[in-house]
Amino acid sequence: MNLFDRILKSRGITPERKAVFLSPNYDAKHDPFLLPDMLPAVERLVEAHKNQERITIYGDYDIDGLTATTVLLDALASFGFEHVDAFIPNRFTEGYGLTVDAIERIAEKGADLILTVDCGSLSHKEITRAKELGMDVIVTDHHNVAPEQPPAVAVINPKRLLQDFPDEYEKYLLKPDSKQQGKIYPFLDLPGVGVAFKLVQALQTKLGGLETGQEKWLLDLVALGTVCDVVTLVDENRTHVFWGLKVLARTRRQGLKALMAVSGVRPETVNARSLGFSLGPRMNAAGRLETAQYALDMLRATDPMEALQFARQLDEMNQARRKEQDEILKEALVQAEELSSDPVLVVSSTGWNHGIVGIVAAKLLERYQKPTFVLAEHGEEAKGSARSYGDFSAADAIRSADDIITKGGGHKLAAGVTLPTANVAAFRKRVNEFYVQQKLQNQAALLLPVADADALLHEVTEELIGYLDTLEPFGNGNPQPILRSETLTVFGVRRMGDSGQHVKLTLKDAAAGKIDLVAFNAPEHFYVDQGVQIVAWYAPELNEWQGRRSVEGRLLHLELI
């Protein structure tokens, strides 16, 4: 069995499933009406179309919310809705999700119907206020749900099915032997933009204007939101991103063309990594520093020069974001050292931008291998973000402190919280107590790379890289393949970077195979001596430089023999 087939086998991709996995069938999509409340949502929108009611799409300031907002703005225009606008909350003044103040302002503008994307599942008070003001609300969301749904016309959220049928799903997929097959939605890890896209597919069965197949032009947005929201890239998510990348390569959107240009992304080679590390950070920078409206304007731009202006603005904001992020991280590291005995890090300070602290939390998690909360103190209130890994749920940890926080929620691995500044110390104590209560074992080991296959260096060829490319898109649930090679002798060690923070190792094995492995911002134990023998875990990649191509690898972990 060759190395590529060994990798497929390790991922459970059998010969029978190989063709379907490598080229997902878009037409095998799931029935959107199997999602909770899809039918009443569609019926209400058909009524709104008939009466040409005023609709406000209530979005969110992250990429999932922005792409979902744009999907619905584009689709409703195609269906012939004439009075549709969008409201994007400001991270700094409104915060995440629906607010009563925003609801009242939308009502003042004469809206008849609010259509949420990527938010609303827990907004009982706000939706009740909308009803009092004579507005109906349709929620489309994918976040945690409440035992009792808010008083909306419809709450389209796949996670409701996990609450109603907890034993029928495994890893968000309906079990093959479930008696609910064909009765409930079979995949629950759709992002907000994915849920919005399913609403579009459902509306296509009732309204004209967007012919079957034409909705595929929306998949560039769906792919962008799906990758950047870090949902699992399996089932429908994989299909949406696989075909969405092909749409993005020839996108009609002037804004995305311009953003790729300023990001140095070539349309013909765009992949999931391009979305997560090039396009995504630039779009997110707007909401982190000022307002996400800039990013929405870029997505909606129709004039090429205007689109380029927006894209350049986002690029400049991203550079400013990175500088501010580095300053916050430097201060946070000082606190983290003082709290190094805590299983959960909770750091906070005045002057930190709470639009950036989530990235800092991810950096601290990577460095200390601990779940991390980073809080920005603004007077009497502190707002922050959490990042976690393994079996520790950041969202559940926040719930354990419900009585001392103002609000909070999110996902297992990423969440947000707002609390009185005076309660920060109590919150730190509470989430650390919650960690201890979980009695988790060997969590740090979960951060170590897991190899798909053992490999001899002569097997790691340019041809193999070509085969591995067919496994794209890579991301959560379908990571870039990792190889393990043992008994490698170090023949060269080269420090790189301004301060020698990167390292390149030249390695050979007993069969005379050779490879260069590179680690950026390498930990100290990666700087080994020439002549020693190691076991290496790495992601093989093709390096192109000045017209020359060579197979290299990103060094992820090593152990001395």
Explain how this protein is built.
With 561 residues, the protein is of the alpha/beta class. β11 and β12 form a beta hairpin. α4 crosses α13, α5 runs parallel beside α6 and α11 packs across α13. It has three domains: 237 residues, Alpha-Beta Complex (inorganic pyrophosphatase (n-terminal core)); 108 residues, Diaminopimelate Epimerase, Chain A, domain 1, CATH 3.10.310.30; 108 residues, OB fold (Dihydrolipoamide Acetyltransferase, E2P) (Beta Barrel). A five-stranded parallel β-sheet has the order 2-1-3-4-5, sandwiched between helices. The protein has a five-stranded mixed β-sheet with strand order 8-9-10-12-11. The chain is built from 18 helices and 18 strands.
